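I'll show a record.
***
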Amino acid sequence: MTDTMNIAYASADNYAPVLGTSIYSLCKNNADADIHIYVLDYEISEENKERLRRTVQAYGKQIDFVSLTEKLVFLSGRVGAYGNEGLKGFVTYAYCFLADLLPDIRRILYLDCDTLVNASLAPLYNTVLEGEHFVGEAPDALRREYKKVIALPDEAIYYNSGCVLMDLERWRQHGASEILLKAIESGWNYPLADQDLMVTCLYRYIQTLSPIYNYLSQYFLYSGREAAFVLGIDYFSAHADDFAAGYKAALLYHFCGNTFIRPWFRNSRHPLKSLYDSYYYGSEWRDVPQAEFKEKPEYRIQYLLFRFAPRPIFLLLSRLMQRLFIFLQYKK
């Protein structure tokens, strides 16, 4: 579809080692591809920018830093009222405005920093967005009751925004940025921030992508059919083969959730810890020691149930715990 793949990330300086590891995996597994990386930059240090440049240049790719402190000024009058942190608190939402930040780009793939690219991105990047769809995302792993929390229709799919394919030309034609801004101005304030904003405002325009394009850490807990039971979402059962394929060889792994502890922590028990470390210690941040994660009791309990409880018991308790979490965390 295109000769150049445009890839976007967003990061502050403290997340640079995680960002750099993802970009290194992207470059290494797409060595022959023409790639232009855009980093939506909130005060990334010059030292870390130079490490990122070395990472990209070693593979003949391009990288540009888009300063959010400068570029988001065009939103300052409308965004400044959102939250107490002003533009700093708005960095999470930056990718929602890629069409404005990069006005000459027609198509782009946004990736969260906490991802690992495991294969060529070409099949994902070249996905045809059909009909009225101008965004492509894979489903998230939240109980179906969460849709009620954000007033999302029950028939709609709740998506994960860690990997977002965007036709920016059609985005602009639909005035999508203005739709999102008006939602924020109206007093919109949902729990999962940018992800809720994108889904609630644009779900009609989002095409469902395979889980192999955004394989969440939660998927290592369940098979597709088990996920359907635990989360109450039929989609996972209908796409059980994709879950099985992704377990062994997803195109993109997304390290959200804390049951396994994210793999950039030295005490991680994630099934892909060794794979992640092979990239981390091959990256420009190999000299940065991995920190230790301070685990909450509920994560430890879920992991112990996963490892040692009889499977039917684990699945039943997981289902009940997920429902209870939604009720207690988001009750109004």
The CA atoms of residues 138 and 211 lie 6 Å apart. The chain is about 40% helix and 15% strand. The domain at 4-293 is CATH 3.90.550.10 (Spore Coat Polysaccharide Biosynthesis Protein SpsA; Chain A). The chain has a mean pLDDT of 91.
